[in-house]
Amino acid sequence: MKWKKFTIETTTDAVDFISEMLSEKGIDGVEVVDKVPLTEAETKGMFIDILPELPPDDGRAQVIFYLDDDLPQTEIIASLADIRRGLDDISLFADTGSLRLTAGETDETDWRNKWKEFFHPFTVENILIKPTWEEIPPEHRDKVLISIDPGTAFGTGSHETTQLCIRQLCHRLQPGMRVLDIGTGSGILAITALKLGAASAAGTDLDPEAVAAAMENAEVNGIGSSQFPIYQGDVIEDEAVRKAVGYGCYDLVLANILAPVIVLLQPVVWQFMKPGAVWITSGILDTKEEMVRQAFEADPHYELLEVSRQNDWVSLVVRRV
Predict the structure, then answer these.
(1) What pLDDT is stored for residue 182 in this prediction?
(2) Which residues of the chain are modeled with pLDDT < 50?
(3) Where are the CATH 3.40.50.150 domain residues in the chain?
(4) How many other CB atoms are found less than 10 A from the CB of residue 49?
């Protein structure tokens, strides 16, 4: 799909006013480009894999919005005239800068791929995680290699929650184990488990694009569908999905999901686990740790083994009793 891209040159002080005005005129998905770093409060609780390094803030900003290229030209012209009137109104009470408006064209795939310029090889324990489009750095040729292209699915591996899971995998996975990765996303955790010696690693996800991304990443890493079957659906609500995944057959379960979902999963996940099997959870913000801990402690099927932390994020590891 082609889109008309419009860029408003403005100031950081005017960004909120302009964004609100565009929203009132029915334009969603506004993009802001500036040099203001996200605060700790803004990033707390967000699954942000990659944060680019920014130069010093100079007070300048761009507000970018998009109009469907298939709209009639008269409708696009009318919308832009309406937006220009809104910008003029904002300039009466705010320092808006030049308000220069420029037009361009973009493709939907550009948005999906823009983040790739910030994704570079990195290591967790003895594992090298690299984009599929980059070469292996010579100094890391001795490491376990995971090649990942997440597409639109969550999971480059650089986020704290994913790294917490990977570290636990390195310490707890035994060769030959059967693994279940709930909310597999890009498939990075299941693929890591297989590279570390798991016999198989099943994945589940609600998002069909995540399923497609995980399958592609498995193929890139030389992993076939028999080793990494993926089930699309909701294991909490859908009994057919649960049966397909399989009861009582997993040695290790992974769930890198937000805390409220982990609580919802607790009455279900023990059914997938062998007695004595381990469940590694992550995606838990430190302010939600107690909520998840109390839910585990109230369920007789689980025994809490370990709590680990990285910045604001927490991983709880439990065993099925």
Answers:
(1) 97
(2) 42-51, 152-153
(3) 146-320
(4) 18
Q: Could you read off the pLDDT of 62-114 as tens digits, one per residue?
A: 999 998 888 888 888 889 999 999 999 999 989 999 999 998 876 555 555 66
Cα angle 228, 230, 232; round to 5: 175
CATH number of this structure's domain 2-114? 3.30.70.120
Distance CA 82, CA 84 (A): 5
- Domain 146-320 class, CATH top level: alpha beta
Cα 218 to chain centroid distance, Å, stands at 18
β-strands 313-320, 273-285: how paired?
antiparallel
Which tokens hold the place of 100? Answer: 């220069």
Cα separation of 179 and 279, whole Å?
Answer: 10
The alpha carbon of residue 217 and the mean position of all alpha carbons in its chain are separated, in whole angstroms, by: 15
Alpha-carbon distance of 181 to 204, in angstroms, equals: 6
- CATH 3.30.70.120 in the chain is located at 2-114
List alpha helices for the chain, DSSP H: 15-24, 40-43, 73-91, 108-113, 160-172, 188-195, 208-220, 239-245, 259-269, 289-297
Residue position matching structure tokens 């795939």? 109
Burial of 321 (0-12, 13-18, 19+ CB in 10 A): exposed
